[in-house]
Amino acid sequence: MAVKRQSTMAVKLDNSWIEQNSDAKNSKTKNNYFDGLKVTGPYKMLFFIITFAYFFEQMDNWNFAFIAPSLMADWGITMADIGKINFAYFVAMTLGGLTGGVISDFIGRRKTFLASIFIFSLASVANGFAPNLLIFTITRAITGFGIFCLMVCSQVYIAEMAPSATRGKWQSLTASIGFIAAPFIGILCSVVIPMSPSAWRHIFLLGGIGLIGFFAGLKYLKESPRWLVAQGKVDEAEQVIEELTKAKVDLSEVASKVEPKVKTMEVIVGLFSPKYSKRTFVILLFVMLTVPASFVITTWTTTLLSQRGLSVDATLTASTLLMFGVPAGCYFASLIADKGGRKIPMAAMAITVAVLSVIFGKLEGFVPIVVCGFFMIGACMALNFITYSYIAENYPTRMRNTSTGIHNAAGRLATSVLQLYVPIVFAHYQFSGVYNLIAIMVCLPVAVLLLWGMKTGRRSLEEIS
Hints:
Blueprint: E1 8-13, E2 16-21, E3 29-30, H1 42-75, H2 79-107, H3 109-129, H4 133-161, H5 167-178, H6 181-192, H7 200-205, H8 211-220, H9 225-230, H10 234-245, E4 249-250, H11 252-256, H12 264-271, H13 277-307, H14 312-323, H15 325-336, H16 343-362, H17 366-393, H18 397-443, H19 446-452, H20 461-464
Parallel strand pairs: 3-4
Antiparallel strand pairs: 1-2, 2-3
Helix pairs in contact: 1-3, 1-4, 1-5, 1-6, 1-8, 1-13, 2-3, 2-4, 2-18, 3-4, 3-8, 4-5, 4-18, 5-15, 5-17, 6-14, 12-18, 13-14, 13-17, 13-18, 13-19, 14-17, 15-17, 16-17, 16-18, 16-19
Membrane topology: Multi-pass membrane protein
InterPro entries: MFS, MFS_dom, MFS_trans_sf, Sugar_transporter_CS
Transmembrane segments: 36-56, 87-107, 114-135, 141-158, 170-193, 199-218, 281-302, 314-337, 344-360, 366-388, 409-429, 435-454
């Protein structure tokens, strides 16, 4: 009996070659996950849910920068007390990054993502009902824990779900839309806070609306196929890709190359193994200097402007206008993130932040402060989100979320320590001294990144790892 041979042909989709069986109508194509597949329909819905979660996460993240001066007046607390609240917030963020990274490697990206939304949304409501400074500090810390669980998980989730050619674009584009929350919360605070001494509570209560993202995610959010393949669930991973893209894919080849799961301690040891030690050193140095500097800009500028002599109304107005630099910076990152192997745009943005910080620290007058501050915060956010993509890309699937959590947690831990020293630097060196410190911190790791950092842009995650 004659045996019919199946013929195959090469098909090019968005610059990625796949092999396709041309005989059977329901045949599968061998492909590297989403590489070469178009982002349409249900696939876009996934990124929409991430964007929605980003929006309310960042409402809860940015609101305290606007609320702090009002809280100082309402409760009679000092800049040192604000520093302690921020310290607790970033320590909890550190724990959230570590926990979120480890847990999502074991229970999956989807479950961790949803749990994070649930935690920070409820904690925000609890902030609004806090009766005293101690309870407020605790509930604010829980908010930070949930926020950074989601941030770490979402970085890895987008990196694993987006096509390799546009990974940086989707990372930054979802953020640029979600981070419209920054100017939105500024406008909201400008309207609500002047209503009464305790009107700041209403801002926190609105954070509970983020639970809508939780319930939407329960229905529409899909698990990462890369994580599923790492768990041996190849058929389920192929089904997820088909549901999102309508393409029938064969992941048997990429599944055969997946390395076995490793324990958390093995991941930590692996970070400093000969293969990964150089990239680990480069990333740790970069995040432990640039992340704290970035958060001084985003969390302290409103308070520092109020201490500089601006009225409450002028401070809120200026800070709100500055916040339009947040989505603008994220959008700009989406345009440049995939160029220069990722590390070139990172270096360029770091230098830009340094230059603008020095200028910002010396400016007088409402208009110059707003204009320079807008570009400074825009460059800062572009730097942050290109860095987020870069971190997640440097490690294989089996260690990606845990290693991302460790790196980001290191950055947040350094940030929490710096929060205690910002009031001291301000007391001794005034407004300009704080922003000169920022410039020094973001410049220091640039040479190391350019010399020893990997180029990751427009390369598949499997090739990089």
